[in-house]
Each structure stands twice: as structure tokens, then as C-alpha cells.
Design a protein that fits this description.
Helix content of chain A: 55-70%
Order of helices and strands of chain A: HHHHHHHHHHHHHHHHHHEHEHEHEHE
Largest sheet of chain A: 5 strands, parallel
Strand content of chain A: 5-15%
Strand order of the largest sheet of chain A: 3-2-1-4-5
Radius of gyration of chain A: 32 Å
Oligomer: homodimer
Number of helices of chain A: 22
Largest interface: A-B, 74 and 74 residues
Chain lengths: 608, 608
């Protein structure tokens, strides 16, 4: 049954040699790799307004200078990442760049924050996509969490089936989204120019505002910079580009930067001009769209493409997380299981882990985007800073021609990213303090895991360990629960191994049954030694393990091995399992974990 | 860690011989065994009003004749159960009485509905107790479900610790409740007599009411009879009484009937006179109390004792359910695990099952008492009817002196119970139809389980089966993952058993590693045959089981046994387990369920 459902959802398994990767041309790459960055404009401008609205609507004109600041930051990041592309043509994630140039711990900090960040990418993008849907259909609003979780499950299944980044179908929504927002911004500007929109919906630029402070403005700027999450995606995926890969990637990066800048500026300006006030039930983007077009076809087109690109942005998390996890797992910083390819050749453990973690986040935060975005953004700027600093170290070490300019560009990138990170910590400490706790914890865990794997390696290696002393003989213990066919079966098997000693053990709860059983046994199996144990506490495990310990102590002296033979009922129908006390399972677990006792399970298949 | 928490919550385990039962005197027995019945007055009168309010407040005077009907029903039940007490002095639950006199299926219907009923007792009593709490503290109202579930968990822990029915502390709340309600009723009557209460709060008896129908009145009567749930408790617990047990029990039953009648009539009358209207946020009892005393000390005393007696009523479910489950399990109708006594000598599996099921019900019904009560009541009147009918059959068969009178009393009891049951089905079909589905299902499951246990018994018995053919020899298969210390360990063990053949199996994912491994192996263990298998789908299990099947087929012909030796890492810290692929666990499960293949687990304890 389990397999049928699995096959239905995921399809037939693929052979290992069916693994192949398609190369991306620029048009497709732009669409696929920039969905995360471009989709950020769906929530970035809103975040600025959410901060400013605490002072009052008069402060909304500050969005314009703040947006200029964000655009400068964007330019710095694009130029810095352009250099990463040429320096690491095989894909330079922040983890690789930081580890190679700054050392193990900075690399782990970058890797750890990226892992967490991809989880947040999924949670934030899906929550924002759900907001786009429920803004259009307000009666779905109280099903937000359910819709978001269903979307995550859907993407998970698609990714487990092996939805590759190169699937052409993923390119359309991105271009449709750009098209839809482009039309909206153009239409809005035309309306403004033609005077169709009243000019008094907003306070003019420069209006003095009571209660505004540098702190608040920095906070709004930090919030707005969340629109830049995702710009690093292209630099991680250079091997997927057609040759000459670095050149193509760099041009794609420039195009993405331009699109992002245009959309972001347009939305910020329209929101300002139309005097949009953020509210919980409708996104800013939805408000702009309905102000511009009314709730007509065009409105629903914008909401639909927004929802789609946000879901696609979540999908980039599903591409990036498993790959980073493989890198970390190969370096032994996380569990080995993340390197295993599933039936459809995707790294299924990574996919499932990401899915579970993001669903958990969505449920805990009740799908409230604005609660997750600060965490997400600060988690992005930490690896940004580390990667740029890593590049600086690289230029200083390698000193290629023109390295001074390259160094300065990355230096500016590093300084700006670092400043933004600090602005986040200073202005939004209440929302991001947890990063300061969980990042060190993650790095510590990485180290602990690596240490464990190294210790295991040493213990397994034949070179570092002494050969085990020879086994001199075997003692077989057979716990018996009655005089039945099952016991006969186990005893026959034990005898066939011709060990040095067989001991049958019976645990009695009452004195009388003890005597009776001994008498019956001596009649049935006179040549096998029976030990009866009395259990005061109605537990089979306790007296049994105590006895086995005694035997094992004696056996150890003469290098004998102790084997416990346990029968296991295998019922014909699986629901019958609940009708049998699973003592054998419990006994096996307890014995294995205690000491060097070998446990042999003899199945007894019930035929009806 | 698990054990520390367990010991902290449940205390040290008790020895089997520490089991002892205290006998109850009448005062204590009345308190302990009648909490379920007496507590029903907290929600019974309210149920009548909830039905009548659908026609209008003018119809409220009908509560008086309906209450008289309920009192007649109570009298009939008390007289009938008095006879059960004398006929079954060792405890005559409906299950035993029905099974002995009416046959297996009626017994199972009674047993099944009682099992479900005890679950409902817990859910209804706890929900009603929570209502008493949140009526007093309205701001807790939206935490209803959480409070109810916490109370269930608390009672569960107390019962797992071994809270016996004889604990004296349980007697106080019952008498306090009777005292509190007694004072309230007396005070109310004094206020009425002294004219302090306005006499125009209610429609006078006999007021004509538009829209009233026989159907509605019967429905109100059925609802009111839910106040009688729990009257059977004394007849089940006769062995707990001091000698002469039947006489003491019968007097306790009479006393309980009297108290129940007084409290019920008093509450119904006050509710009628004070013109109380049922509402979701405050119970009728709480309204009467606050009308009579205002929200003073006395009010909170009444609410507190009500909450306490309702929690105690839930506790009677915790005493009765595990005992009935033991009876059914001994007759092999439900899983054997219900007969096992836990650390503190309580039937812990029954307790935990009851707890989980009632929490589930509370969550599904969101703690809404009025949704559960009809199900609960109909589930009570089915075993009532069966038990009384069983008694009739008994009198007709045994014909003791005066049997005609006994027969008539039980006959009246059976007829009234039967009618009430029908009234429920006719007037509240929408709420109780599910009984018609789940009761047959439960009985079917009982039969299936019994059949399975009988089949197992036959297959285990040495008398009915032929002795197994002798084992001619052993083949040992050792799956190997590399040339390591673990493999050496497993091979040494396999060799020490000196089987007829040892085969090492290696599953390779790539052709190159296959060749390399074979070369290394032949150098390391030249005398052990190595079989390498190629896995196209990156699965270890599939090629391995296929190979083992081939070996097993050949082995079966010559009556050889196949043993698969699997190494199992036992890490030093349990969190390390997640770092190792649990392939051995998976292989073991798959192999055991396939055919007669024996699985030997050799632990490899990691030392760091």
C-alpha cells in the first residue's frame, strides 16, 4: 500500500545513469534563477511602509529616499557578485568562498545561516504567495496556514518527483510576473501623468513629520533591503549556464539587477503616490493593483502571477538547500543521509527536511510574513558579508592584474552588507536576537558531528585498531514463554548451530507456575538446561537482562560470545501486530544497547 | 531520561504481591460510586431546557412534568439494579449479565457500548467540569479544550500512579457537592417562600405553548434522562463492599437514588422558578447559583464542588474501563495487552487508551458537552436494556422463590430502558445515528480478534501441529559495506558458528568500485566467498533481498536454514543515531517479513 501511494505520487524510480543536466541559456536562466530576487518586490516595499506607518501616514514620503538607499545597496551587491562569478566559475556559494578564504568557522557560519535561510525562503515566499491569494479572495483569509502548508506539500512532491531547475514551464510565470507588474507600473504612471489620480493622496516629499528618528529610518531601510534577498542565486549556479558560463551569468546578473531595480522603484513610487496604507488583510501590491485597475481581470492576473512567482521563489529554496546540504554532508558537518539520492535522483532527504522545517515555521508563525522577514533578511546579509570579505582576502592573496579595483568593489560590498546587518541587529533586535543564539549552536553542532564521524572512521579502520581476539566459543540463551511450536522452532535452530552451551530461560510471575513449568520442561526437553527466573515487578525484561548480564560476565572471561535467540511472530495481516505484545522488539532493543550481546531473531510466520 | 521522568510522574514500581484491596463501608461507597450519577445533575436539567428553548421560554413549565417522568424512570432503574446486586454478588456488569443469559452477541453489544460509554463518561464529565470552571471565570472560556485536556492528563497520571477507588480523599468532594447543592436548593426555596424572588420570572404551569409537540417533549425527556447515567456503577462494584456486601450495596443504591432524586428535582424546580435560559457561556447550575447567592463565596463554593465532582465522575470511567477491558481481553475479544498490569499495578494500557480516546473526543467536539451527551446517553440505555432483559431470562430459567415479582420488576426496567433508547433514536437521530454504525463494527472487530487468537493458539500448540522437520545445515550470509572493523567482527562471529557455508555480499553502486572491492577482498579474506551485486537504483535492500531469496530457495530444498548476519552500530550517545543510516533496521524488518530467514544482529559499540 505504502509503495503504491509512493509510486503514484513520485513515479517509477530512475536508474543512476539517467542523471543528466541540461544547460541553461540566458533567457531561461534569468527566469529561473531570479524568481527569488524578483519575487521579493512583492513584500519588500510593504515592509518599509509597515515601519513608517508607526509614525503616521505623513512619513510615507520617506519611502522615496529609503528606496534610493536600497537601490545603491543593490548596485553594490550586483557589482560584488559579478566578481564572485568570474572568480568561482564552478559555483561560488557563500559557504565555499568563506571556507576557502576565511577558514572553517566563517565558512560554517555562512553555511549554517544559508541552510536556515533557505528554510525561511520557503516559509516567507509561500506565506507571501498565500497572502496574494487571500488578498484576492478575502473569504479564504482564515485558511491562510492550511493553504500555505498545502502549497509546500505540493512543491515537495514535485521536487521529489525530480522537478529540475531546467524545466521550461518554470520560466513562464517569471516573465508573466514581470509583464504584469510592468503593465501595472506603466498604467499607474500614465494615470498620474494624465491627472486621473488625485494628487492629494500623499504628503509631499519633505513634509516635516513629528516623531521621526534616524533609528526609525534605518529600520525602514533595513526592512526594505529584504527586497534584495535572492540576488546571490545566480553566482551559485554558474555551472548550469551554457558556455562561456561566467560571461553569460554575469550578463544575466546585470539584467536581473535592472529588472529588480525597475520593479522595486515603480512599486515604491506608486504606493507612495496612491497613499497606500499597509494592512493585515490585503497586501500593498494588491491595493496598488486594485487602485490602478479596479477588481477586474487585470487585477486577478497580477495577483495570480504574484502568487505563482512567490511559489517559484520557494522552489529555488528546494533547489538550493539540498545541494548545500550535500556539500556540508560531504565535508562531514551534517548527517551522511543528506548525500543519498532518492528514487527519482533528487536528494530526497534534504527535500523532505526542508519541507518539514518550513511547514513547522509557517505553523508556528501562523503564516505571518512580516514576522519572518527580518529573520530571513538578517540571515541573508550574514553570508553576503562573509562572501564579500572572503573575496577581499582572495584578491589580497592572489593579486591578479587590476586587483586593487576588484578589492575595492568587494570591500564596498562587504562594508555595505556588514552595515545593513548591523542596522538589522540594532533596529530590529527584538525580532532577530535569536540568530545570535541559533547560529553559534548550529556551528557547534557542525563541529560535534564532524568529530563524531572522524571518531567512527578511526574505530572502523583496520589500520588503527588491533584485530579482535579470536572467539573461543558460543553460549546461546533462548528465552521461552511456554511449551509451544515457536519455542520448538527456536530451540531446533539453536541446536543446529551446535554451540558450547544452550540455556533456556523462563520468567515466571507466580511461584506455582514456576514449579509446574519446570516439571513439564524436564519431560519435554530433558537435555536442555532450563533456568527459571521470578519477576516481582511483572517485567520480563528486567530479570532477563540481569540473568544475561551474569552469563555475559562469565563468558567474557573466556572470550565466549553470548547469543540470545528471540522468536518473533510475523502475523499474516499487519493489523494483527497490535494483538501481540511486542516484547521481542523491546528485548532486542534493550539487549543490543547494553553490551556485546548478539541477538538472533527467528521469525515464526503465522499462516492464518 | 525517559525513566527519570516516568519515575517522577508515576513513582517507584510496586511488587505484584503488594496488590491489596480495601473494602468500602457504606458512607465511603456512596461517595465514591455515586459521583458519576450525582454529577449528572450538573448537566441533565440543562439538557431539558436546551430542547424546550427551541420553542420558546413559555414552554419551560414542561420541565416539571418531564422531571416527574425522569424520576419514575430513576425509580424503575433503582429497583431493577437492586435485583442485579443480589443475583450477581460478585459484580454484575451489563457485559457479564448479558453474555451469561442472552448469549455471546448481546454480551458483546453491551460490552462494546460500555467501552465506548466510559470514554464518553470521561469526555462529557471533564467537558462539563470545565464548563463549571469557565462559567465562574469567563475569561478562561476560549481555553476550554486546553483545560479539559489538561484535566484528563492529570487524572491519567493519578490513575497510572495507582489512585485506587478506595482513596478516602475522593469521598470529600461528593459530600461537599451534595452539601453545596443542598444549601443552594434550600436557600432558593426559602427565598421563594419568603417572596424575595419575583414570581413572574416564569410562565405558570399549564400555559399553552404554540409549536409544542409530543415529539419535542419526548426529546426533552430523553435529554433529561441523561441525568441518570452512572446509576449502574454500584451494581458493578459489589465485591468492594464490606460484608454482607449485597445488603450494603443495595442500601447504598437506595441512598444514592434518593439523593439523585432530591438534587435533580430541586435544580429543575429552581431553574423553572427563576426562569433560567440556557446559554453557551454559562451553565444553568452557575446561573441558579448566582441568582440565589450572587457571585460571592457561596457561588464559587458551588462551582468548585461541581467541577470537582465532575472530575471525580470522569475518574469512575478510569476505574471501570480498564476492568471491563480486562474481562473482554481475558475472553480474547480485545488485545491481550489490556490484561497487563503496569509498574504501579494499574492496568496501564487500558488507562492510557481511555485517556487518549477521550482527549481525541474532546478535541474533535471542541469540548461542547451538549454534542456528546446524546451519544453518551443512548450508549448507556443499550446496556441498561440488555442487562434487564438478561435478568428476565435468568429469572425464567432459574425460577427462584418469588420469581414472578422479580421478573416483573426487571421487565418494567427493561421496557422503560428500551423505550428511552427508542425515544433517543427517534427524536435525536441526527446526533446518535453513528451508534448504529460503530456498534456493529465493534462487535465485528471483537469476533475477528477472537478468531485470530484462536488461530494463533492452534498454530502454537504442539498437539495440533506436526513437529518441524530437522534442520540439516546452516548458510550464513554477511552483507558487507567495506573492509572495516565492523565487518571483521561479523565475519569472526559467523565463522565461530562453523556453518556449512558463509557468503559475504557487497552491493556496489558503480562498476569500478565493484572491481576494486573484489580485489581488496581477495587479499583480505581469501577463504570467504564474496558475491558482489550491482544496484541500478541506489537501493541496498532490493538487490540484497533478491539474492537472499535465491539462496533461500536452494536452501529450502535441502532443509538448510539461512541466517543473515547484520552489524548494528551502537553509538555512545543516542543523538548520534541520526548520523548513521539505519539500513540495518530496514534490512532486518524487510527480511523478517519475507520468509523464514533468520536475522542475527551483531552490535558494534562505538567507544567515542
Amino acid at each position: 500500500m505504502y509503495y503504491t501511494i509512493k509510486r503514484l505520487l513520485l513515479g517509477q524510480p530512475l536508474k543512476s545513469n539517467e542523471l543528466g543536466e541540461q544547460k541553461l541559456n540566458k533567457t531561461k536562466a534569468l527566469a529561473i534563477l531570479s524568481s527569488d530576487a524578483l519575487s521579493s518586490v512583492a513584500y519588500g516595499p510593504e515592509q518599509i511602509l509597515i515601519v513608517l506607518v508607526t509614525v503616521g501616514m505623513a512619513a510615507f514620503w520617506y519611502t522615496i529616499p529609503i528606496a534610493v538607499g536600497v537601490l545603491v545597496l543593490l548596485l553594490a551587491l550586483i557589482l560584488s557578485y559579478r566578481q564572485v562569478i568570474f572568480a568561482y566559475p564552478h559555483g561560488g556559494g557563500a559557504y565555499v568562498v568563506s571556507k576557502e578564504n576565511l577558514g572553517e568557522n566563517p565558512g560554517l557560519i555562512a553555511g549554517g545561516s544559508l541552510l536556515v535561510d533557505y528554510i525561511l525562503t520557503v516559509a516567507v515566499s509561500i506565506s507571501a504567495g498565500t497572502d496574494a491569494i487571500t488578498s484576492a479572495f478575502p473569504h479564504l483569509h482564515h485558511h491562510n496556514v492550511l493553504i500555505a502548508c498545502s502549497l509546500v506539500v505540493l512543491i515537495t512532491i514535485l521536487n521529489l518527483r525530480g522537478l529540475t531547475e531546467s524545466a521550461s514551464i518554470l520560466a513562464y510565470p517569471v516573465y508573466l510576473f514581470v509583464l504584469a507588474l510592468g503593465i501595472m507600473i506603466a498604467a499607474g504612471l500614465v494615470q498620474i501623468a494624465s491627472g486621473k489620480l488625485p494628487a492629494d493622496l500623499h504628503a509631499p516629499i519633505g513634509t516635516p513629520v513629528a516623531g521621526i528618528s534616524l533609528f526609525l529610518l534605518l529600520r525602514a531601510f533595513a526592512s526594505g533591503s529584504s527586497a534584495l534577498t535572492g540576488v546571490e542565486a545566480i553566482s551559485n549556479a554558474i555551472p548550469n549556464f551554457k558556455d562561456p558560463a561566467p560571461n553569460n551569468a554575469s550578463r544575466t546578473l546585470a539584467a536581473m539587477g535592472l529588472l529588480l531595480a525597475l520593479l522595486f522603484s515603480g512599486i515604491v513610487f506608486l504606493a507612495y503616490y496612491e497613499g497606500i496604507v499597509p494592512n493585515v488583510r490585503e497586501t500593498v501590491l494588491s491595493q496598488i493593483a486594485s487602485t490602478t485597475f479596479g477588481r477586474g481581470l487585470m487585477y486577478y492576473f497580477i495577483q495570480a502571477t504574484t502568487a505563482m512567482i512567490l511559489v517559484l521563489a520557494a522552489n529555488t529554496g528546494f533547489s538550493a538547500f539540498p545541494l548545500l546540504a550535500v556539500n556540508l554532508a560531504k565535508d562531514k558537518y551534517i548527517a551522511r543521509m543528506f548525500t543519498v539520492r532518492g528514487d527519482r535522483l533528487g536528494y530526497s532527504n534534504g527535500i523532505v527536511f526542508l519541507s518539514a522545517a518550513s511547514i513547522l515555521l509557517i505553523i508556528v508563525f501562523e503564516g505571518r510574513t512580516e514576522q519572518l522577514i527580518p529573520l530571513y533578511a538578517v540571515g541573508v546579509f550574514i553570508p553576503f558579508t562573509l562572501a564579500q570579505t572572503g573575496m577581499m582576502v582572495k584578491w589580497m592573496n592572489d593579486k591578479p592584474p587590476g586587483w586593487i579595483i576588484k578589492l575595492s568593489i568587494n570591500c564596498i560590498g562587504a562594508l555595505i552588507s556588514f552595515s545593513v546587518m548591523w542596522i538589522f541587529f540594532i533596529t530590529k533586535f527584538a525580532q532577530v536576537w535569536s540568530v545570535l543564539i541559533f547560529l553559534p549552536c548550529i556551528v557547534l553542532i557542525f563541529h560535534r558531528i564532524k568529530k563524531h564521524y572522524q571518531a567512527v572512521g578511526e574505530q572502523l579502520s583496520l589500520n588503527t585498531c588491533e584485530p579482535a581476539p579470536p572467539i573461543e566459543g558460543n553460549v546461546i540463551i533462548v528465552p521461552v514463554a511456554g511449551i509451544t511450536h515457536v519455542v520448538e522452532n527456536s530451540l531446533n535452530y539453536a541446536k543446529s548451530l551446535s554451540p558450547d552451551q544452550i540455556i533456556a530461560v523462563y520468567v515466571a510471575f507466580e511461584r506455582e507456575t514456576e514449579k509446574q513449568f519446570e516439571a513439564k520442561w524436564n519431560q519435554w526437553q530433558p537435555d536442555i538446561r532450563l533456568v527459571t527466573l521470578h519477576s516481582h515487578y511483572r517485567s520480563i525484561i528486567q530479570p532477563l537482562t540481569k540473568f544475561i548480564d551474569t552469563v555475559a560476565n562469565k563468558a567474557e572471561e573466556s572470550n565466549f560470545r553470548v547469543t540470545v535467540v528471540i522468536p518473533q511472530f510475523i502475523p499474516k495481516k499487519s493489523w494483527h501486530n497490535v494483538l501481540h505484545n511486542q516484547s521481542s522488539l523491546l528485548i532486542r532493543t534493550v539487549l543490543l544497547y547494553r553490551r556485546d550481546i548478539i541477538v538472533t531473531t527467528v521469525p515464526f510466520h503465522l499462516k492464518k
